[in-house]
Amino acid sequence: MSSSYISKSLKYASKDIPAGFVVFLVALPLCLGIALASEAPMASGVVSGIVAGIIVSWISGSAMAVSGPAAGLTVTVATAIQRLGSFNGFLVSVLLAGAFQILLGLLRAGVLASFFPHSVIKGMLAAIGLIIILKQIPHALGWDADFVGDEQYLQTTDQETTFSEIIKAFDRLEPGAIVVSAVAVLTLYAWSREPLKRHGILSMVPAPLVAVLVGTQVSRIWNHLFPGLALTGAGGHLVSIPSSGGAFGIFTSLPAPDWSYLGKGVTWEIAIAIALVASIESLLSLEAVDRLDPERRVSDSNRELVAQGAGNLICGLVGGLPMTAVIVRSSANVYAGARTRLSSFVHGVFLLAAVALVPGMLNTIPLAALAIVLIAVGLKLLSWKLLKQMWRSGFEQALPFAVTLVAIVATDLLTGVAIGLVFGLMIVIRMNHQSAITVVSEGNTCLVRFAKDVSFAHKPSLKKILGHLPEGSDVIIDGTGAHFIDHDILETVSDFYEGAVQRNIRVTLKNLRSKRMSRWGGVLHGKLQEPSIGQ
Fold this sequence. Notes:
Helix content: 55-70%
Shape: elongated
Mean pLDDT: 87
Number of helices: 21
Order of helices and strands: HHHEHHHHHHHHHEHHHHHHHEEHEHE
Low-confidence stretches: 516-535
Number of domains: 3
């Protein structure tokens, strides 16, 4: 760790420590919920969060990214555990996945992050924001059937969809949760007003932290006044940390890797799958977080892969779930005012201290208060400013953005991003297709100009252009701006040239014969001689 990192972390400690506590409050139910959805021991999710905070934060290539167990891996993890028939065996796959990620980082595979279009990244951020809002509405209303942090449209816990879950929540309103949510909203609003912002001490305390603390106190008062309508852990309305065996009791039963699985092919197959999925999600998150960073710092993606690999290797050894860099916690980190990686480290320390020493104190925090904090994060990501910016940027940017947004909300993060990337690629191909052949007409003269690389894919449009030229016209086919002209294009021009005299069309060819048909040295077809008719 360089001295510059340490000095900057100390400089912004007054911002990073409170922000780290906010991230901890958001991360704790996410760690527990993701472990539950993955059909893994509850402690394994917390262990992953602790390793991510205390160790990975200092190795990471990002100052603002927060890592931990990811909702995008729940299906992969649950399926892998079922296939192996043992969580202990699964830990070997996690360990190997970490080693593969370290190798990917050393091979500089992080460069792949640069290939994600900005329109897709922005669409992903907006989609995550919308998902957070939609998924947290039921929790804010007191319906806590689905685990906190679920990002999939079809929920694995109760087989509801994102929207049907909201409808069900309105049928089962919980008065106490609504009161807590309303007070948390008012607290966030009041804390962001100018008078409090100007107050020296109060300005150092993040609004989300105040909202959670006030919401917790309101929940206690409500439970005292209306015991029949109390928000309880048994009802699933409060943070629920497993507690057993006193201090550090949650860690006493952590499983160890079963090394006998090292010789099974399925273990390695699962390890490769986890490494690839976790690496892609981490790189996506890294690109997204860099766009949220107020200082616009550019993260080292190769270093991030090494950091994630180291974290997963350790998780495999100590009984944790696989981790990635995650957008929700990272967004909460930015929203809470963090400036350096110290905030991520602090969140890991708080996770360790909370579950090891004082789990009972945290089990009084209502999920409704956390839901309001997350909804505020979602509104930051799905900003009206971003939507207007993308709308005004032209269809080649707006369409991939919109497709990515809708696809992620309707499926899951990786599937939606893949759809957005394919759609974005189609837009690029279409734009390139249109710009490769341009037509300019003036009076009886028509100029057909080739640019860039003109491949066989442009043959249909070229035939259409040449076929619609009026009889008796003067046509100039100019290849000056082309770097490469495919053989099929030259054959099409040749066929048009031979038939042009029948249509009384005068043809001029410019700079076509000098163009190579391929990198191996093929030249223009002998039938096309320059200069031609009309010279």
